[in-house]
## 1
Amino acid sequence: MTGHEQPTNVTPPRWRAWLAPMSRIPTPLIFGFSVAIALVVLWFQGSLRDLFDVVGDADYTLLIVAAPVYVASLGLLCYRWHVLVRMAQGTSDLARAAEAFLTSVVINYAAPIGLAVPSRAALTKRALGLDARATGTIAVWEIGVDVIVLGAGTLLWLFLANGSTSAVGSELSDSIRTYAVAGIALVAIVTLGAWWFLRTADRRARLFESGKRILLAPRDRPAEAALALATTTVYWVIQGVVLALLVTAFGVDSSFEFILGLTTLPILVGMLSPIPGGAVVREALMYAVARLAGVPGDPVIAAALVYRIALFAAIPILYGLARWRIARRQVSISRGDHHAPSESHS
């Protein structure tokens, strides 16, 4: 440093100062609070009250068979998130990644996708120390692999099911106003954010470079990318098995074409829906698929309701396992630190 140079004190942006206290909130507290909000949302939607009305008519044996399969499939999603983190930065911690993922899934039921995906990425960034590019990579490609698999399944169903295109168009037209309002709001927010962020040529160049690296991330680690896509495919096949067991439990005969329709288009549209948790949209499309297959709609909606509520029985189990693994490892580390001085002294 020359005599004319002065040290510069860079003041962090004000928004970081506002968010600093939130970054210190423990993830288990965020998880518990999100579960409470999501349950309130489901209660006001009437889902919890309806559940007690429909379960009484089900075949409990099939529900019991479906339960562990569903829990295992959710564990597969935790592993996929872990694989995506590895694809983004080369290393990951399965327990920490699972904790962040499960917490964000609950947030998804209390907020639209606009908050669910960033929250998932933010929690993972905090837990595993990701940089901005890695955070963007896993956020983008988690949606990407789901859209690839469900989109391919949707196209296959539209090809196999006669009259599916007109039935889907008729059902979606009932929700067009909601999607139009949400689309206009989203475009306005994105436009405003892009105008603010891309005011300088340097920012535009950095954004272009980051976006290119995010989109080309699978090329850098093709093994992890292929594993993430394969895991996603297996997961949605298992969801088809779970839905087949559920609709059969409510007395509906299931065919491959019918279950393919239930598992792909309704879930894809509900996933991308601006409505919290894809509520109403997913069930409405499932009803349309059922009518097209000549299947009574009410048992299918009952199965869809059980499928939705089952998430809140499965998540605490897996979350408890993730926290147990983290706590056990921390105890092992603390014991190692305790014995280290005596070992080095000898």
## 2
Amino acid sequence: MERTEFLRKQADRFLRLAQECTDPEICRQLMSMANEYRDMLEAPEPDPQTGLGKAS
């Protein structure tokens, strides 16, 4: 649950910064980072038995 909350907050933070940003390149980078955090939200939680997403 902590991971989900952290990822959601980070995505929201980067989106908010992108909305306030006046530099188009920085805005694009912030949007990209927000999208990466949202993608991580949709990914399954890493299995503590196998480590951080390591294949078995």
## 3
Amino acid sequence: MREPGLRSLRAFGLPPRQMRRSVSPDDLRSLAETRGFTVDEAVLIRNRVNAIYFKAMK
């Protein structure tokens, strides 16, 4: 089975250049709050790949 991310890249290509920047937990929190979500937690996880753990409710 192929990974969903790879299938998405093949189907749609790379995102526009202005959208390729990194997103911080604060950026994600701000975006969610402007969309009406209450953010419980937004944490940057550093392991092999940087990821954000994000928990919010609408």
